[in-house]
């Protein structure tokens, strides 16, 4: 984890983080977005998807669980995944995310539903909301992301 949290004081700052991430992600990467409802996970994902070329606002994948985006809609294949409704990690196996990862970027909201051992090489971003509404972001930056994490 980063030693001190990064503060995201507005929606624009959450979107800008997504834009910064878009400059350094590629197929095979996993960006795990963790935090309570309303913390800004989808906002970061929307900023990233917009920077990859998506026109219009990306819907939250809460009900679809997996929302795919493919070129030419975006620069690279992306699976925006929301595991909120997954109750057992075995349910997620049916989604085929590990196979899809070979040629897609995975943006995974609620990754903790799969347990701490899932995707050890993922960039793991955890958001919390302070009493003043400011979001605090902490990052677990694995070796695969050293030198690419844009906020160091």
UniProtKB/TrEMBL annotation:
Keywords of the record: ATP-binding, Cytoplasm, Magnesium, Metal-binding, Nucleotide-binding, Transferase, tRNA processing
Location within or outside the cell: Cytoplasm
GO MF assignments: ATP binding; metal ion binding; transferase activity
InterPro entries (alphabetical): P-loop_NTPase (IPR027417), T6A_TsaE (IPR003442)
Annotated GO biological process: tRNA threonylcarbamoyladenosine modification
Family under the similarity heading: Belongs to the TsaE family.
Stated name of the protein: tRNA threonylcarbamoyladenosine biosynthesis protein TsaE
Gene source species: Sphingomonas pokkalii
UniProt lineage: Bacteria, Pseudomonadati, Pseudomonadota, Alphaproteobacteria, Sphingomonadales
């Amino acid at each position: 984890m980063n030693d001190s949290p990064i503060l995201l004081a507005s929606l624009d700052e959450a979107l800008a983080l997504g834009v910064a991430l878009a400059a350094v992600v590629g197929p095979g990467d996993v960006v795990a977005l963790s935090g309570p409802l309303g913390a800004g996970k989808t906002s970061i994902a929307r900023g990233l998807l917009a920077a990859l070329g998506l026109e219009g606002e990306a819907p939250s994948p809460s009900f679809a669980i997996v929302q795919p985006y493919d070129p030419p809609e975006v620069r690279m294949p992306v699976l925006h995944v929301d595991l909120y409704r997954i109750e057992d990690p075995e349910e997620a196996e049916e989604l085929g995310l590990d196979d899809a990862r070979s040629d897609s970027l995975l943006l995974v909201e609620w990754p903790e539903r799969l347990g701490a051992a899932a995707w050890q090489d993922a960039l793991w971003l955890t958001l919390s909301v302070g009493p003043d509404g400011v979001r605090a972001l902490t990052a677990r930056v694995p070796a695969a992301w050293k030198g690419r994490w844009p906020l160091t």
